[in-house]
Design a protein that fits this description.
By secondary structure, this protein is α/β, with parallel strands linked by helices. It has twelve helices and 22 strands.
Length: 630
């Protein structure tokens, strides 16, 4: 049975990679050096090379020279590099994997051949070792394709201790990643990688495990490797990456799946009566499923019903006839469940229907307008919507208590309208399209050297966000309409960010878990910016990450914490008491500052109540769009 399962799995992978192989060649140079003339022998690099070669062949790669290469001398290594660079075409993917001794010196990294007797000091490296930079220079001459370099090579520094002042460093050093290149180091610059206790080095062992799910983006695979290695080494070894890829790289292209409808939960709040059932709403740009009619629920005095945990419960998971008892409290909500067991047979109040976020869709055919006096929303082309502001998520709000900066529950808000919110923050691609079409005041905000594309736009002031919205509404035919695009109100933003949760963060109460869900000021950010308080975890980015790099919250919204702070409509007030009870924006006769929410890569939010005063464009401030729904 296991053989059959393995055969089926291999067949599926082969079919999955066949289309990619037809579009481009993928060629890998794999070297493992373990038996050295002078430096200490290593136990696992040869095993690492064998494991990597086997896995890459399964994923559709060709091996340069027809196989991996073990215990290679300098002359042999130079020939392998020359042949490999000639085998890779202009648009091909070049993959280099090296395991063995490596040295960082003279602004680059060196792969140490097995005949290393003549390497006495770092000054000898150019004559008797192979520079990774020279290999990259050969590949750069293609002016195209993708380069992936993985160096499990900083096992230790084989030079005598009294020669390290001659330009050598402990471990490998940082290298600039040329355009179209991804570089992965087994350890952070200055660290030494562990050879491992099993058949593979610690880095390669984790990489093999991560490649069991090859249909994830490359950066996500290496993020999993980083976490696994750091956990096993108790923080003493942390893989590091440098990248300048033009497109996401997949070992296996992921299969497209139908969108999953996420059902939100009723947030903990004051007891409220359920609203009357509403008729299904249909428009030309989204389709919303009708909410279930609310029926009186009989409370069972002797046997209270335990509802599902908040993270698991959905609208579909509760049968219409099942009694559901919700216990609510006006006290602090932080750390409590959205639903819990009723402790006594006292009269209970049936919770309001959960908010139901739904992905925005474009109707495939003409739909008759609903039986209502309000005009139907204008039809929007899906491709145009996506290129303008991206996908949006429709939200049916329920009453909730805002969370103050202290984490305590504040005033109760009942947002009086349905609304939609951008699934992602507005990106540089979206902004540059605005400028290219004569909008956005002709202003191209700086990216501070981080790159544009799918990264969230930053360095934008309030007036710039309004110029973008004006352009987007004109492009989509929404200018002057009551449901035109706008910034979210502070109440809308918080409701959407918390996604029906009542915990400190939408994912729970532990701040140490935040790096798994958001780009904030983490351990490595704190090393680069020591003036900022940092949390002791690793989120894989020091500066802004491409939108959607982290898992979404329960409403399907990405980056509601961290990455860049986000402008809202509301004028700044120090007190949450200014938030309107109906969820509308707080306005003032003079509004010099506006509320920003969510924190950014420069801070570590303490809870979902994190808010700040925005008055100019900065390198940690962007926005996402909202829209009132009929």
């Amino acid at each position: 049975m296991r053989k059959l399962a393995g055969f089926i799995a291999g067949t599926i992978i082969a079919l999955a990679v066949s289309s990619a192989a037809q579009a481009e060649r993928r060629v890998a140079l794999i070297i493992g050096n373990a038996d050295y003339t002078k430096a200490p022998d290593l136990r696992n690099p040869v095993n690492d090379a064998r494991s990597m070669a086997k896995r890459l062949k399964e994923l559709g790669f060709e091996l340069s020279g027809g196989s991996h290469h073990e215990n290679v001398t300098r002359v042999e290594m130079a020939r392998l590099v020359r042949r490999f660079s000639s085998e890779v075409g202009r648009d091909d993917t070049a993959f280099i994997f090296y395991a063995g001794h490596g040295i960082g010196a003279h602004g680059t990294n060196w792969m140490v051949p097995t005949d290393d007797a003549d390497i006495q000091t770092a000054l000898d490296l150019p004559d008797f070792a192979i520079s990774v930079s020279s290999l990259m220079e050969r590949l750069e001459r293609r002016q195209g394709g993708t380069n992936i370099v993985m160096l499990d090579a900083c096992r230790d520094n084989p030079l005598p201790s009294d020669t390290r002042s001659s330009g050598a460093t402990r471990g490998l050093g940082r290298m600039a990643a040329p355009n179209g290149t991804f570089i992965a180091y087994a350890a952070d610059p200055g660290q030494v990688a562990f050879d491992g206790e099993g058949n593979n080095g610690l880095f390669t062992e984790s990489l093999m495990r991560a490649l069991e799910k090859p249909d994830r983006p490359l950066y996500e695979i290496l993020r999993a490797v980083r976490r696994d290695v750091r956990r096993k080494a108790s923080g003493a070894q942390t893989p590091w990456t440098e990248e300048s890829l033009n497109d996401e790289f997949f070992f296996v292209q992921p299969r497209e799946e139908a969108p999953v409808r996420v059902a939100a939960l009723q947030p903990q709040t004051q007891p409220v009566a359920p609203p009357p059932a509403a008729a299904p709403q249909t428009s030309g740009w989204l389709t919303a499923a009708p909410e279930p009619a609310q029926q009186p629920v009989a409370v069972q005095p002797a046997q209270p019903v335990v509802t599902a945990p908040p993270a698991l419960q959905s609208l579909e998971s509760v049968a219409p006839s099942q009694p559901v008892v919700a216990m609510v409290s006006p006290a602090r909500t932080t750390g409590q469940s959205a639903t819990s067991v009723a402790p006594a047979p006292e009269p209970a109040v049936v919770a309001a229907p959960p908010a139901t976020p739904e992905p925005v869709r474009v109707a495939a055919a003409t739909v008759a307008p609903p039986a209502t006096s309000a005009p139907a929303a204008p039809r929007i082309d899906s491709a145009l919507l996506a290129s303008t502001v991206g996908e949006m998520v429709a939200i049916n709000p329920a009453p909730f208590q805002v969370m103050q900066a202290s984490g305590e529950a504040g005033t109760t808000v009942r947002i009086a309208h349905r609304f939609a919110l951008g699934k992602f923050e507005v990106t540089y691609d979206m902004w540059d399209a605005c400028v290219d079409e004569g909008g956005c005041l002709g202003y191209r905000p700086a990216d501070d050297g981080e790159g544009r594309g799918e990264r969230p736009v930053m360095n934008v002031e309030w007036k710039h966000t309004q110029a973008f919205l004006e352009w987007a509404n004109r492009r989509l035919g929404l200018a002057g309409q009551p449901d035109a695009l706008r910034l979210p109100t502070e109440a809308e933003w918080e409701y959407a960010a918390r996604a029906g949760s009542s915990s400190t963060f939408y994912f729970g109460d532990e701040q140490d878990e935040i790096c798994r869900h958001a780009n904030v000021m983490d351990y490595y950010g704190g090393r680069y910016f020591p003036i900022f308080p940092a949390v002791d975890c690793d989120d894989d980015y020091v500066r802004p990450a491409p939108v959607g790099s982290y898992a979404p919250n329960g409403f399907g919204l990405h980056d509601m914490i961290g990455n860049v702070s986000e402008w809202t409509q509301d004028c700044w007030s120090r007190k949450y008491g200014q938030i309107a009870s109906d969820g509308s924006a707080h306005v003032a006769q003079r509004c010099d500052y506006h509320v920003t929410r969510g924190g950014s890569w420069m801070v570590t939010p303490k809870n979902m109540g994190e808010r700040a005063r925005g008055y100019k464009g900065t390198e940690n401030l962007g926005f996402r769009v909202a829209r009132t729904l009929p």
